[in-house]
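User: structure tokens for this one?
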Amino acid sequence: MTFSFKNKLGHRVLSVIQNYNHQKYWRRRATVVNPNSKTNLLIKLYYLYYIKKTDAFHNCSFGTNLGSGTTFEEPPHLPHGPKGIIIGHDLKIGKGVVLYHNVTLAHGGSVIGDNVLFSTGSVLLSGKNIGGNVKIGANAVVVEDIPCDSTVVLSKPRVIVNIKKIN
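Assistant:
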């Protein structure tokens, strides 16, 4: 058997090296923020302790309050771990979202579609919606709604690609 970070043993080794277990973190976060969860309060508090301890170790924050309404259809992919990522409250985040380090998603009712990539240092201001299959370039600040299948670059983003799907 060859060693790989993709199998169960590899995940365990990687979580020890990085002091971060992606699946465990997001599974516990989903339990803590779900108001309909039947999980015992003491277990929820322990999970919250684990989440905060992990956040503190990596000098990061996933918002001011984990129970404040941000929903993920599935856990985002964090290629560089959770370092410097700030996620506000009341966001709806789709599937297949990739967040590189130092990304800020401000609170305020934004909706992020499926398969969106946020490059290093990108910022989403409150109330702005992003369609599916969008790429946000490094250090871009999203100040307006972004349509599906677009690429956004620069500090004041400009849509440079908007490909209509051909059936």
